[in-house]
Specification:
This protein is of the alpha+beta class. Helix content is 40%, strand content 20%. It contains six helices and five strands, in the order E-E-H-E-E-E-H-H-H-H-H. The chain has a three-stranded antiparallel beta sheet. A hairpin with a 2-residue loop joins strand 1 (12-17) and strand 2 (20-25). The longest helix is centred in the middle third of the chain and has 19 residues, at 86-104. The radius of gyration is 22 Å and the shape is elongated.
């Protein structure tokens, strides 16, 4: 989409996230682009919604999407799209911690690393206490890893290999993973620049 003739250069950007589209930039160009897209794609009502400020944009399947403009001397120079799953993480770590507290009558220990190296050195013999719910918690963590916590991916991959024959060593790995996730959530949020 091009701006009006004899006008300063203007632009807009389109972010496509699965079936959600976010258009940012010059209001006139964004309006032109959304009209062209609406002619091609049938959007559910209300379709395009206009936001005149930066910050919180939408909440989609446990992901908060925020748009932030980088400014130099008050002039927008770039756009950053930030994905946040803090509320999703609080929900799942809360469920896990509640279950952990009920089973062991103590608080889940916070960890600074997501993977439990010791559980990989020994093959577990006994069935783990989380064998009936391991898929639920590993899948919840995998969803977070996909969008906002890539550092837990390797630990999740290891735990996913044990879901059909869950052992006590896998329990240690799941405790470590959720202890790390709680640690990350409890840390103060970094300040935006």
């Amino acid at each position: 989409v091009e701006g009006a003739k004899n006008s300063p250069p203007t632009s807009c950007s389109l972010l496509a996230f699965v079936d959600d589209h976010i258009c940012t930039g010059h209001p006139h160009l964004a309006n032109c682009l959304t009209k062209k897209l609406s002619a091609q794609i049938e959007y559910k009502s209300p379709g395009w919604q206009e936001y005149g400020h930066t910050g919180y944009v939408c909440h989609i399947l446990g992901i908060d999407i925020k748009i932030e403009y980088e400014r130099i001397r008050g002039v927008p120079t770039s756009v950053r799209v930030a994905y946040d799953q803090r509320e999703y993480g609080k929900m799942w770590t809360g469920r896990f911690c509640t279950m952990f507290n009920q089973m062991f009558r103590r608080r889940l220990r916070r960890r600074q690393l997501p993977a439990h190296a010791g559980s990989r050195m020994i093959n577990g013999v006994e069935e783990g206490v989380y064998s009936s719910c391991c898929r639920t918690f590993v899948s919840a963590a995998a969803y977070a890893a996909r969008h906002s916590l890539p550092e837990i991916t390797e630990a999740i991959n290891f735990l996913q290999t044990g879901t059909t024959a869950w052992k006590t060593t896998h329990d240690d790995g799941l405790n470590q993973l959720f202890g790390y996730w709680v640690y990350i959530i409890e840390r103060p949020e970094p300040e935006s620049t």
